[in-house]
Specification:
- The chain contains 28 helices and 12 strands.
- The protein is elongated.
- A 4-stranded mixed β-sheet has the order 3-5-6-9. Strands 4-7-8 form a 3-stranded mixed β-sheet.
- The longest helix is centred in the N-terminal third of the chain and has 42 residues.
- The chain is mostly helical and 760 residues long.
- Helix 2 runs antiparallel to helix 8.
- It folds into 4 domains: 79 residues, no CATH class; 141 residues, no CATH class; 230 residues, Clc chloride channel (Orthogonal Bundle), CATH 1.10.3080.10; 155 residues, CBS-domain (Roll).
- It is a multi-pass membrane protein.
């Protein structure tokens, strides 16, 4: 925005825009913001505050408050995001257990909390206590037998269906934007797109409530991705309380970038990983100032969640682990194999899920979202209940798969045959032959792996909150644990092989299957999302050990290489393209040798460009042009004959300016001349008062020549966040290129449907 100076020689004419009026500088829904203008407006605002701060003590205090408002917003976001994450964790824990039974002493206790408070619980039977009763015990006083199993099975399915139905109904009625993971839309919003209501208060409330319901229903989804959406809703809410952010869409996006970091911080208990995730995966514009504030927001969020202590283990996540055994160079081979598996799984999942989501959008299936959720929930519950590894919550499953087998573990995965003569410390148990429980668990894990792979494809993208982090990690953890047990048994039975001889002697603790599960989880998550640095840091923060960074890096890089060989898009970018959002990915390369003249509008055979002249159009002419076109703005030229460019006027601001002028300025009628120059044009006597609109004119629109390579134009749009760019030759206007034109051209060059770009 360029401010006009005082009118010279204009008599008693008033430039009513000397005073700001409501809604100027705002944007319509499903439109892109002008980053350059937002930056310029913030610079002007800051300059004004700085100059005023020298006038009085009160103005100086106001300038200090303005400077500190960013840190206050970060503090509030961290506190609310951490609190909501803690409440969600506690509620999910209770409602997941509610499907299997209830605590008689206090119905709001989960199974674990119920037995903690019991004085009759023994260590061997720590999962059993008189206060906790399964539904069969409560209703028919039977805990064993076919009838008890069938009753528990039936009630498990009924509870799951009840939770899922309630969730999809709430989303459909109160907040349609609360569905999905939210990360594709957050990425698009952070790139400068406007989606009104997506980060609203209703969306925050409904997403928080329904997230608890869908995770508790046992569906193959997680809460980690949606927590980013929840945290960004918190960021949007607190931004609206401070004019510095509420009136500037560019500044608001800096807050949302920091909020995304806080979301990952509470999802995984990884503050540093959260900051890197925001930087690597979701943010479009990430200045150094935002890095510090993201770090502060992530710190406060993690501290708040730690204070709530939802899991009762002083950790921020359920599957925190610590390993004590080092890894060996020979193990890099299975780690890289897990990376290959993760890349292949990521490719398979993205292609199948996008195909299913496209089918949902283009067929009658999309008209019945409630029925789809009910059917998928019923199938999930029916197949999941018989297998103990799919019956429990996915976070508990990952926790068990990550765990190292200690002397006190009661899991089937730790059913090894012990040497009765063993006298070693508890945390250094040597490799042992697998017992029948381990072999049984391997079969159950293999079936659970196939089930998770298939059902997650159909679950992600339904009209309910659905995260992908946890299901992807579960797939990788199951594959990794099976590979780990295989390597462990191979090392035990063939310790004289050359690859084991140097580092795995009889009686040594050589292989940690839980580490393989963790590496597999990282590989699969990396294959689906294409995260690398932030993924490794998140996994390293989960384990608390620097020693395992190399295996994690090897798996993450391998999975990305393998997945990129089949397609560069991660799941979030694929969903952005599926929905037709105008997102210019900085990771994409444009290598085609086309010019600006090939892309600009109008093209040959099309109607000439709609323009405004600087001082020869009436109010009625401008209103007619606005009514007959749907363009977001109009170039302003000296005259239609010369077509020499003067500036660019936004459609929304023209509408608001004319509306306000009719209300506030006497003498403005349909025949009034609209002028964008400093001085009014010479008019015949008795002419109606002219309307000066120079204040809303952008006098320095971004221009390129018609022979500018499109590679340069694409780079300009990416790095400056432009909405449109004017094409000129020797100062004469030839055409215009919008962000949508660039995206359509890129799609065309990649042999994709250019009409898939639906929004401006």
């Amino acid at each position: 925005m360029v401010n006009a100076g005082d009118m010279n020689g204009s008599g008693n004419l008033m430039d009513f825009l000397d005073e700001p009026f409501p809604d100027v500088g705002t944007y319509e829904d499903f439109h892109t913001i002008d980053w350059l203008r937002e930056k310029s407006r913030d610079t002007d605002r800051h300059r004004k505050i700085t100059s005023k701060s020298k006038e009085s003590i009160w103005e100086f205090i106001k300038s200090l408050l303005d400077a500190w408002s960013g840190w206050v917003v970060m503090l509030l976001i961290g506190l609310l995001a951490g609190t909501l994450a803690g409440v969600i964790d506690l509620a999910v824990d209770w409602m997941t257990d509610l499907k299997e039974g209830v605590c008689l002493s206090a119905f709001w206790y989960s199974h674990e909390q119920c037995c903690w408070t019991s004085n009759e619980t023994t260590f061997d039977d720590r999962d059993k206590c008189p206060q906790w009763q399964k539904w069969s015990e409560l209703l028919v006083s039977q805990s064993e037998g076919a009838s008890a199993y069938i009753l528990n099975y039936f009630l498990y399915i009924m509870w799951a269906l009840c939770f899922a139905f309630l969730a999809v109904s709430l989303v459909r009625v109160f907040a349609p934007y609360a569905c999905g993971s939210g990360i594709p839309e957050i990425k698009t919003i952070l790139s400068g797109f406007i989606i009104r209501g997506y980060l609203g208060k209703w969306t925050l409330l409904i997403k928080t409530v329904t997230l608890v319901l869908v995770v508790s229903s046992g569906l193959s989804l997680g809460k980690e991705g949606p927590l980013v959406h929840v945290a960004c809703c918190c960021g949007n809410f607190f931004s609206s309380l401070f004019s510095k952010y509420s009136k500037n869409e560019g500044k608001r996006r800096e807050v949302l970038s920091a909020a995304a970091a806080a979301g990952i911080s509470v999802a995984f208990g990884a503050p540093i990983g959260g900051v890197l995730f925001s930087l690597e995966e979701v943010s479009y514009y990430f200045p150094l100032k935002t890095l510090w504030r993201s770090f502060f927001a992530a710190l406060v969020a993690a501290f708040t969640l730690r204070s709530i202590n939802p899991f009762g283990n002083s950790r921020l996540v359920l599957f925190y682990v610590e390993y004590h055994t080092p890894w060996y160079m020979a193990e890099l081979f299975p780690f890289i194999l897990l990376g290959v598996f993760g890349g292949l799984w990521g490719t398979l999942f993205i292609r199948c899920n996008i195909a299913w989501c496209r089918r949902r959008k283009t067929t009658r299936l999309g008209k019945y979202p409630v029925l789809e959720v009910i059917v998928i929930t019923a199938i999930t519950a029916i197949i999941a209940y018989p297998n103990p590894y799919t019956r429990r919550s996915t976070s508990e499953l990952i926790s068990e798969l990550f765990n190292d087998c200690g002397a006190l573990e009661s899991s089937q995965l730790c059913d090894y045959i012990n040497d009765p003569n063993m006298t070693r410390p508890v945390d250094d148990i040597p490799d042992r032959p697998a017992g029948p429980g381990v072999y049984s668990a391997m079969w159950q894990l293999a079936l659970a792996l196939v089930f998770k792979i298939v059902i997650t494809i159909f679950t992600f993208g339904m009209k309910i909150p659905s995260g992908l982090f946890i299901p992807s990690m579960a797939v990788g953890a199951m594959a990794g644990r099976m590979v780990g047990i295989g390597v462990e048994q191979l090392a035990y039975h063939h310790h004289d092989w050359i690859i084991f001889r140097n580092w795995c002697r009889p009686g040594a603790d050589c292989v940690t299957p839980g580490l393989y599960a963790m590496v597999g989880a990282a590989a699969c998550l990396g294959g689906v999302t294409r995260m690398t640095v932030s993924l490794v840091v998140i996994m390293f923060e989960l384990t608390g050990g620097l020693e395992y960074i190399v295996p994690l890096m090897a798996a993450a890089v391998t999975s990305k290489w393998v997945a990129d060989a089949f397609g560069k898009e991660g799941i979030y970018e694929a969903h952005i393209h599926l929905n037709g959002y105008p997102f210019l990915d900085v990771k994409d390369e444009f290598t085609h040798r086309t010019l600006a003249t090939d892309v600009m509008r109008p093209r040959r055979g099309e109607a000439p460009l709609s323009v405004l002249t600087q001082d020869s159009m009436t109010v009625e002419d401008v209103e007619t042009l606005i009514k007959e076109t749907d363009y977001n703005g109009f170039p302003v030229v000296v005259s239609k004959d010369s077509e020499r460019l003067i500036g660019f006027a936004q459609r929304r601001e023209l509408i608001l300016a004319i509306k306000n002028a009719r209300q506030r300025q006497d003498g403005v009628v349909s025949n009034s001349i609209v002028y964008f120059t400093e001085d009014p044009p010479e008019l015949p006597p008795n002419s109606p008062h002219p309307l000066k609109l120079r204040r809303i004119l952008n006098l320095s629109p971004f221009t390129v020549t018609d022979h500018t390579p499109m590679e340069t134009v694409v780079d300009i749009f990416r790095k400056l966040g432009l909405r449109q760019c004017l094409v000129t030759r020797s100062g004469r206007l030839l055409g215009i290129i919008t962000k949508k034109d660039v995206l359509r051209h890129m799609a065309q060059m990649a042999n994709q449907d250019p009409e898939s770009i639906m929004f401006n």
